[in-house]
C-alpha cells in the first residue's frame, strides 16, 4: 500500500484481507521475512480498522499500529500476530482513544508465526487502562466459542480496565473468564450504560440479578447465554430500571420472563446453534 505523503493526511483506514489468504501466508515464514520495514507517518489518523491481517514486528501494518498518535477508534478483527507490545505502544500513543474492539483467535485456532505463540494478555488491557483514560466503549470477542481461550485475558484484566476508564458500553463475546464475580465488579462501574453478553456461559442467575444494582445501566443484551434462566431476570420485573432488554437464543429464558423487565423488551429464540 503506497500512499506516500498522503499517510500524513489520512484520518480513517479500513483494511480487510481474505481469511483464506491470511492463513496461507501465516505458515509461509519466507513471505513474512521478506516484508519491508517502513516508517509510516500516521499522526492524523483517528480511526483504524484491520480485519484478517498479519501483523509482523516492524513490517507492514505493524508500522501503522506503532505510529498512530491521535487514534480515537480502533478495531482489530482476527489480526494474527498482534502482540502485547503492539497494544502497549498503541495505548501509550493514543490518549484520546474512545473505542476499542478486539476479536482474537482462541487458543485452539491460534496459528504459530515464526515459532512463537501469539496471544494478547492482561498486559495489553492494563496498558490501555493506564494510558487511555477517555475510553468509553470496549468489545472483546474470542472467535471460536467451542474452544475458549483461558490463557489470554483474565477477569482481573477486564475489571482493571472497567474500573480505571469511564466505560459506557461493554460487550463480551465468548469471554469465558467473565463470570458472576465479574458481574459483581460491574456494580462499581459508575459510567456503564450498555452491557452485552454473548456466549458468556459462566454468568448465572446469581450474577445477572446484580444488574438491579448497576448504577447507570440502561441497555442489557443477552445472547446464547446457557447459565441464565428466568430467575435471573426476576429482580428487574416491574422495576423498569432498564430502557431496553434484548434476549436472543438463550435456551433457559422464556418470553414470559422478559415482560415488564424493561421499558422496551425484545425476545427471539432460535436454538439451532446448539445442535
TrEMBL record:
InterPro entries this protein is in? Leu-rich_rpt_Cys-con_subtyp, LRR_dom_sf
Q: Which SMART domains match?
A: LRR_CC (SM00367)
Kindly state one GO CC term assigned in the UniProt record: SCF ubiquitin ligase complex
Q: What is this protein called?
A: Uncharacterized protein
Q: Which GO terms describe its biological process?
A: SCF-dependent proteasomal ubiquitin-dependent protein catabolic process
SUPFAM superfamilies from the UniProt entry: RNI-like
